[in-house]
Structures are given as structure tokens and as C-alpha cells.
Amino acid sequence: MKLVSIVIPAYNEAAFIGDLLRSIAQVDTRALGFEKEVLVVNDGSTDATEAIARSFEVDGVRCFTQVPNQGKGRAVERGIREAAGDYILIQDADMEYDPADYLPLLAALETGADAVYGSRVLGQIRAAGWSLTPGKNPAQGFGPWFAGVVLSFLTFLLYGRWISDTLTAYKLYPAKVLKAMTIETRGFETDHEITAKLIRGGFRIAEVPISYRPRSLAEGKKIKPRDGLIAVWTLFRFRFKT
Q1: What percent of the chain has pLDDT over 70?
Q2: Cβ pair 60, 38 in contact under 8 A
């Protein structure tokens, strides 16, 4: 049976990390031929994130701590190094995403995909149909939705590959490929660096619809408008970097 490593970069997520780990435990990946391991990378949290994550170690969760906070990209990189799985799935530490969607992500590997992205855009279209703002969740701000549209078009223009949701936090990667990469970024833009390198490497990326419950800044959402500009630069940078 194959192993999927679920890597959770976490920074001050005490309000959500416990519920998330309980939700992950309930997902039966064995039905699709996968055991799972869960790795929490506590990225310099100043709240009870680490203590809560370590309370799940009796259930097999592994927790690693980086001090001081080094950014999501560095936390993801640490999780990749520690992962033992055949595939690595990145999971945000909040509850915006539903771990039940692991199953369609893993199932999509049977189509011959090398990597699988969970698309919130396709999930919203599946749930509510097309609109003037296709794929926008009613609880999502126009700015974040529009940024996603811009990044999708930019990815297509630069790389010739259409990805409906480049910003999704649900990405399933082949571990050998990811471990062989030298990841140079350290923030949210790491997602775009990896996407760029997968496309340039000729790997096939499939997308599947997933559910999504946006949270607000007041609830702890950390991505900022400047991260969108950094994402644009990252796509340009790794398109032409040799």
C-alpha cells in the first residue's frame, strides 16, 4: 500500500488545528490504497498551536517546530524533507478546506496525473453553476477571486497550461519530484515556484473540484494583497530562470 504524507504548515492556528487533525483522522484513504501520515510544521507560533498538535502525537501525528517564524514556504520545505510518503499533500492549518476532498485528489492519480490540484473554482461552479464571476464563493471577496483569475491567465500566457486555481492550498505532489527540487522561495509564493517547475519539467497536473469555506482576516487569514504581486513576480522569475 502506498503512503501519502499530509504536510501542515501552521502559524498561530490554535483555534483550528485540533479540529483539523480530528477531521483528517476520519478520512479513510485506505479505500484508495493509501496509508497516511500527518506532519505538522509549527512555524514559530506564539499561541498554543504546538501544544495542541503534540497532543495528537499519540495518534501518530508528527510535529516539528521552527523558531523563529520562517514563512509558509520554509515550513512546507521542512515538511517535504521529513515526509516518508510516495506522495505529499499540502494542507493549510485552518478549516477552509475539507479533508474529505483527499479522496478525489488521490483518485485522480489513476488518470495518469503526476500531480493533482484541488480547484475551488471548479468546486464552486459544480455547486452553483456559471455566473458573471465564475467560481467565486459567495463568502469570498472580489479581490482574492480576481487575483486568482489573473494568476490563471498569467500561468497560461507564460507556460501554456491552464490551471483554474493556482492559489489553491490543496496540492498533491509526487514525493520523488518534490524532494529533488531546490525550493528557493519562502512565503506563499512557494506554491507558484513548484507549479512553474512542474510545468517546465513536463509533468501532468490534473485538477479536481473541491469544497471551500473562506475565512476572513478577523478569523486569522494571513495572505495579503502584496502576496499576489509576489506571485506574479514568481511566475515570471521561474519561467525564464535557467
Answers
A1: 96
A2: yes
Measured distance CA(194)–CA(169) in Å, rounded: 12
Angle at 164 between CA 4 and CA 188, to 5 degrees: 60
- What pTM does this model have? 0.93
For 30-77, what is each residue's pLDDT tens digit? Answer: 999 999 999 999 999 999 999 999 999 999 999 999 999 999 989 999
130 CB-near residues (< 8 Å, 6+ apart): none
Backbone angles phi, psi at 205, to 5 degrees: -110, 120
Non-local CB neighbours of 78 within 8 Å, separated by 6+ positions: 41, 64, 66
- Over 60: is that where the pLDDT of 109 sits? yes
Closest CA to 193 of 203, 181, 180: 181
CA distance 77 to 7: 9
Question: Mind listing the pLDDT tens digit for each residue in 76-95?
Answer: 999 999 999 999 999 999 88
